[in-house]
Amino acid sequence: MRTGLRRRTLPGLVNATGRGTGNEAGTEGQAVVGVAVEVEGLSKSFGSQNIWSDVTLTLPPGEISVLLGPSGTGKSVFLKSLVGLLKPEKGSIVIQDTDLVRTSEHKLYEIRKLFGVLFQDGALFGSMNLFDNIAFPLREHTKKSESEIKRIVLEKMDMVGLQGAEGKLPGEISGGMRKRAGLARALVLDPEIILFDEPDSGLDPVRVAYLNQLIVDLNAQIDATFLIVTHDIGTARTVPDNLGLLFRRNLVMFGPREQLLTSQEPVVRQFLNGRREGPIGMSEEKDVAQVEAEMAALEARGGDAHNGVGPKGASGGDAVPPQLTPTEGLPERKAERRRQERVARMLHEFDEETQEAIRASLPEDLLAQADSGAYESTQGSGGRHWAPEPDAVGSTGRGATATLPRQGGEA
Fold this sequence. Notes:
single chain, alpha/beta, 4-stranded antiparallel sheet, 14 helices, 34% helix, globular
């Protein structure tokens, strides 16, 4: 455990044994998992231009989350804010009891060691071979011997399928290989939080499919917290545990994947189906009259279910596809069980369509517990970021609601 940093146990989060997923400093014999990232009321502007306001969400520890949004909505700015490269004007980013927005430079430097980042283009040094590119963080931030560095680099290259390519220069390999090399470099310091900035950018659909499987396989092996920024709807539908959408300078939604994939919010439906009809225009926004006319025409054609197949992995309809699982021979994702327990506790707080989709993904034991009343309604500072707001349900937590949380203003 890194000096001065302490894990925290969040309310409403338990593992398969019923214990909290957070590890306290000095605890022996417990598996290391990624840490939670708690964002509260975050706002960022460049001069007079507001990028986004009042963004509130929590990335659950060890789970895979995806952040969607039209081009220019500040998704990459959000990633840079999380890692402390940009400083928001308002709000907080809390990791292990430290607010990155207000902490000292020294503490921020220590917190950054928890992160690994895969940049859009891989951000490799063109004059260095892949081995030296991947070894760079180890040589800069540790005092490890060259023999230990070699062992770690070759191990990470093996994890991403780059065995034997250590002597190649970035210009001598394909775009997909450069992405994997950038991912190997993000892994060498054994980060507990990994940020992916449009990992599918510049890749063909087949390579995107391979990369998605690699992300799921890595999560199964290292159990770190992943946040992926992407435009690829196929990735958003099949990879993450949690989904969020940025639009009009606000976070429209963030929650379990089933919540967004079954959402009837017009902007969510438009984006997930990759169609022109809806609030998103070429310049991001449309006027109300145009949106209403387009939605009426779409409804007359049968709605999303008959809208054909859109680009970037989008497809018509409201179906929630199965989530990708690790490659055969790899361990099961520990985060999958943690997530299942979390959404089982929240099951009766969602609308009927979301409940139905979640039920299809839950094992029988958790479904039985949820229906028997064994779980209490999710409450507290941790759970409310992942469930409907407390005032959206009845006092018993059992009231069904069609109102999904809008974290950050109008959609």
